[in-house]
Specification:
The chain has 175 residues and is mainly alpha-helical. It is built from six helices and no strands. α3 packs antiparallel against α4.
Length: 175
């Protein structure tokens, strides 16, 4: 029996969407942004949101680019580039007001169809496009190492385990 022409085995890149670290980060991000920030607003809810988003966003971006067949790049390369792009955008919206303003309007525009559909189905008038609330915080750049999480998880999954290997040899650190 011949395989379907478009069926492919799940790749380790797509497997990251079911990795416990990804799922915990996604859950923390959702609970934090939709519950904790409103009920217990403080500096730590902002940092938790940043860390979780920096884990989730590069993985989602890499999977999206790969699923659109827009790239034939190796998955590890795609994850490195996705992490770098997310880190640069994240840094930019924390440090430059014009980019933070653009981000708030673009994300508001992305959310608008959802808000409009809910309003129309609820019998309410269609809402105007409203930018999201974004608070610039230069100290958020301390969360940037979390952007490398997807690439690290991918490398650990695809690299054969070597007895006595600490995982730090590539950086010059060892046990």
């Amino acid at each position: 029996m011949a395989d379907k022409p478009h069926s492919q085995p799940a790749s380790p890149l797509h497997d990251l969407l079911l990795h416990p670290v990804f799922l915990v980060a996604l859950g923390c991000w959702l609970v934090n942004d939709h519950l904790l920030k409103h009920t217990l607003p403080s500096w730590w809810t902002g940092k938790l949101s940043d860390a979780a988003g920096l884990v989730v966003a590069p993985i989602c971006l890499a999977v999206l680019v790969r699923s659109q067949r827009a790239s034939r790049a190796r998955a590890s390369t795609l994850l490195r580039w996705s992490s770098a792009v997310v880190a640069m955008v994240f840094s930019g919206i924390q440090l430059w007001p014009w980019l933070a303003n653009l981000y708030a309007h673009v994300l508001g525009g992305v959310q608008w169809p959802w808000h409009a559909a809910l309003a129309l189905f609820g019998g309410e008038p269609c809402p105007a496009l409203i930018p999201v609330v974004h608070t610039m915080d230069p100290t958020d750049v301390w969360m940037l190492p979390f952007a490398a999480t997807g690439w690290i998880l991918y490398r650990r999954r695809t690299r054969p385990h070597e007895p006595g290997h600490s995982g730090f040899a590539a950086s010059g650190c060892s046990r």
